[in-house]
Structures are given as C-alpha cells and as structure tokens.
Design brief:
14 helices; alpha/beta; 323 residues; Rossmann fold; globular
C-alpha cells in the first residue's frame, strides 16, 4: 500500500513538473516563431513550387488559411470542366494577410491569371468591441503599431494557454509521426492533410468546442492585417492579376459567438474592398452553417462525401474565369 501511494505521488510530481516546464517555455515558443509552425502543422512556403512552369494552362491560385485548405482542389478542377484551366490551392494553416504578404513576390512571379483569397474573422482578430470609427486604419497608427516595441516577448503570452498548449502537443506529435503521402492533396503544396480532417464531428463535439473569438481584444493584429491585405490586393492588381475575395464557411455555433461589432467590422472591410479596390466578394461564411458537414466549428470536413463547398468554389471559378 505504501509503495503504491509512493508511486502515485511520484507520477503526480512528474506530471506537475512537465506541465510547468511546458507552460514556462510557451512565451518563448510564441516569440521566436516556433509555435506558429507547430500550430499550423504545415511547411513554410518554398521557392520550388513557384519556379515551376505555369504557362501551359490558364492558372488560378486559391490562397488563405486552413479554411481554404479544406477545399479539395482536385475535385474543384474536375468540376470546372475546362482542361485549359488549372487551379492550385496555396493554403497555409495559420495563415493571415501579414504572413501571406511575405510570399507576395513569389506569387506574382508565377503570373497567375486570377487569385481567389479566402478570408474570415480569424484573419483579422476583430476586437470583440468596435474600438475604431473606421475599419480602415490610419497610416500613422500602422507605423506606430509596427515600431512601438522591440521587446520580443511583448504581448506574446496567449490569452488561452490551454488552447495553445494542446496545439503545441498535437503539433509535436504530428512532426514525430508523419501521415502517409497519399493524404497530401494534389496541387496543394503547402497544406498537409491528415486522416482526422475527414471526420464529421457530432453535434455534441461541436458544442464542446472553445470558440476563440471572444478572446480577441487587441486591435494591433487587426490593423496590421488590414494594412497587409490592402497591400496584397494593390500589388497584385498592379501586375494585372485579377483578385476575388470570398469569405470561408463557419458553423452556426461559431457565428453565434461573434458579437454584432465583429460582424459589422468584417462587413465594413468587405464593403471597403468592394468600393475602393473594385474587388468582387463571394460570401460562404453562413451558407453551410447548419449542415452536417463539419470537422470542427471553423473547418468543413475533408470527407469525400462533403462536396457543397467544393461545388460552390468551382462555380465561382467558372464565373470569374469565363465571364
């Protein structure tokens, strides 16, 4: 009996020490960009893809986060029914305009005919309350936000440590145990697919999910990402590449957790893009919100029987590439 109690105490002590070590290094992982890699579970953009020859067909790029990654581009290419068009899905898990702008020159160098950019609330982390009178940031405010602090640990501690800790663990497990190559989708070079992406979650599972929207309270991320999506659109248009924006699907439980302020801020941004940059907008965020097709609250399942999203993306591409 004493030996058993002693063993339990040892196990408890080891567990506590392991948790404290993981928790204590979390800010450093965030600060030095290790965490985004683990959370994203995807490789960094590499130049090899962009050095390819895209001149044989009319080329379109899908770009965005894992929300866009759940588009089965092989199915989309089949649904387009046009052998002269090839669509590539360049989604990156954890992507945002401020990350995507870093590969802007590479994307432009490939000379696609058109870019379809999928965005959602998570790309801008709109504050829970509207703290600005205009959704478009003031240039002086952008400059001051970008230069205000050189401390690498400033504002790096996550608002939800448990959520980030679980993602670190999952990311480490996925690095250690790679999935078979056939789970990588053709023409999707930067977004790895895993078996779990094909699961259709139950309603109880979806209800138990934590919705991160309410933790978005800092406007700095919003300001930087709005600035960078405007830069992306402007630079792409300068090179006579057509840009289409579409909002990515969300489950109804996710939509219900968003404040009216957050919804208004996204609507305001979309209106500004439409009016000031002549960008056409497709809205998919509510279209499938109540269907039984979800892997989690913000990701449609990659199950082969889930085709609604792919059909609509293919139709959008047909319309915009064959006006």
């Amino acid at each position: 009996m004493e030996i058993k109690i002693s063993q339990n105490i040892k196990i408890s002590i080891i567990s506590v020490i392991a948790f404290l070590v993981a928790f204590s290094v979390l800010p450093f992982l965030v600060a030095f960009s290790v965490l985004p890699f683990l959370v994203a579970e995807s490789p960094f953009i590499e130049g090899d893809f962009f050095s390819g020859d895209f001149s044989q067909n009319r080329t379109g790029f899908l770009i965005g986060s894992s929300h866009v990654g759940r588009i089965n581009v092989t199915q989309v290419n089949d649904l387009i029914h046009d052998d002269s068009i090839t669509i590539y899905n360049l989604a990156i898990a954890g992507d945002s305009p401020s990350k995507r702008v870093r590969s802007l020159e590479q994307i432009i160098s490939a000379k696609p005919e058109i870019i379809f950019y999928g965005i959602s609330y998570r790309d801008f982390n709109f504050p829970y309350q509207n703290i600005a009178s205009s959704i478009l940031p003031d240039p002086q405010q952008i400059l001051s936000e970008k230069l205000h602090d050189n401390n690498p640990l400033n504002n790096t501690f996550p608002s939800n440590p448990q959520w980030y800790s679980m993602h670190i663990i999952r990311g480490l497990l996925n690095i250690i145990k790679k999935e078979p190559e056939h789970f990588w989708e053709i023409n999707t070079p930067f977004y790895p697919y895993h078996r779990r992406y094909g699961i259709i979650a139950t309603d109880d599972d979806l209800k138990n999910e934590i919705v991160p929207a309410k933790t978005w309270i800092d406007s700095k991320t919003k300001i930087n990402n709005i600035h960078d999506i405007l830069k992306i659109i402007s630079e792409v248009q300068k090179h006579e590449i057509k840009v289409i924006i579409f909002t990515t699907p969300l489950h109804q439980y996710y939509l219900d957790e968003l404040s009216n302020s957050q919804k208004n801020q996204l609507d305001s941004l979309l209106n500004d893009l439409r009016e000031n940059y002549d960008v056409k907008i497709y809205k998919f965020e509510k279209k499938y919100s109540k269907l039984n097709i979800w892997n989690n609250l913000s990701h449609v399942s990659f199950n082969r029987n889930v085709t609604e999203y792919n059909h609509d993306v293919a139709e959008m591409i047909r319309i915009e590439m064959n006006p």
